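__Record contents__

***
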Amino acid sequence: MSARNDSDNGVERRRFLAAVAGVAGLAALGQVPADRAIAAVRPRSGGYPFTLGVASGDPAPDGAVLWTRLAPEPLAPDGGMPAKRVPVQWQVATDDRMRHVIRAGTAVALPELAHSVHVELSGLEPGREYFYAFRYRDDVSDIGRTKTAPAPGAHLAAMSFAFASCQRWDDGYYAPYHHLAMDDLDLVVHLGDYLYEYGINEHGGFRNVPVPDQFRTDTTTLDRYRIQYGLYKTDQNLQQAHARFPWLVTWDDHEVDNDYAGTVQGYSGADITARRAAAYQAFYEHLPLRRSSMPRDGDMLLYRRLAYGDLAQFDVLDTRQYRSVPPCGWGEADECDAAYDPSVTMTGSAQERWLLDGLSVSSARWNVLANQVLMARLDHDGDDGDTVWNDSWDGYPAARQRIVDHIVHAGVRNPVVVTGDWHSTFVNDIKTDFTNPDSPTVATEFVGTSISSNGDREVYGPYYGPMIKFNPHIKFFDGDRRGYVRCTVDQQHWRSDLQMVTTVSRPDAPAYTLASFVVEDGRPGAHEV
């Protein structure tokens, strides 16, 4: 329950202060150094500072990252905070009433990072839930829940997670998150397009709510990215999903600019180095990421690995920052020989080596590639042509083949790719040779639809639907529903439930399961159940 809505607010606040004082001697990450002066200044507006909610992420067996940002004016670039370093107290408890506090400390919220807070916890027990809250001056945040990962190599009978992507704010409400937050999950994996860089009209697009003038322009500067995140993160369903589960996040293109590659803008070929640096900083400021992901010199280390005991290994990919400019052209274009040059890369050589080496030594039952764009081939015109979408792995076929060949040669167990980006749902067989339908299936790909992007419009059903007949490895397709994918994994089976909402025109739209698919241990390829 939110402390600001609690009739016992004074009691809860005294409990919080007493708990912080009682564990002040603990060596906790995020504590303020004694020799650094911090001013507990009042926000400019005097308003409630935790308007963007709380979140946790990157769970480890001994902890996780706790996040918040002080923003009494969430639609102002500085959040309504003065340009000073300020202290934010935090505490972690074993119960949802915050009575049994086991960790506490004070973090420094810096104006250089938009007064965001990233507390890296350690010393917790593996595989159990914890609760946390923040305090600034007299205001206490909502209480969040997180869960640590199992101990390394521990035998794990089962786990559940959801993956989601593509949440354009002005295309509709985040109704899927309302239902995701009520699921029983260990983890949420977000696969990109957390934010869209486009300007927003005065009616808030399909939300039909007034939006201030500063949102009319496209997002290109740090201040503009900050207010775009501020608007997006005011969505209560998104806040609820963040507060309920730890998240594992990566990005796609719209966190910077549509279809960009490296530091090159899609289609125009313009250099976007400065814009990308601003976007990367804002991304870090608004998501629960570790210090290892803090941007440096305009770059940001985002690919990383997370293990869930002996059951699952998650390899989180970054297919934007290091990719080559698509050699055959941007977007929809014909295939060409240049894409088979060994130097053409989707991940960059260092990340590719990291991925292949990690797959080689993995002892997990299920090996999960958290990926941005469609990995399976999508032939647009069959025998009549060679057209593909070059912003996906189809634009980088040699890079894709290196991963597929490695899966075969290294004997990687149960590889499953989870993918975002497409505002559509696909269930795909990953083939050793996509031009030969009879070639072996070596992995399974689940592509999730969007949370809100494209709204209630019918766009991709009519566009991609006619192409499916050219691609027999695509076992399921739906183009125009909004939702997320819930995955339940045990030692014998992987089950994916396609969770959809009836509309994104309202934040509380009903949800339903469109279809469910199962992958069996040792048998790549999904079948509907």
Notes: The two ends are 38 Å apart (CA to CA). Residues 1-40 have pLDDT under 50 and may be disordered.
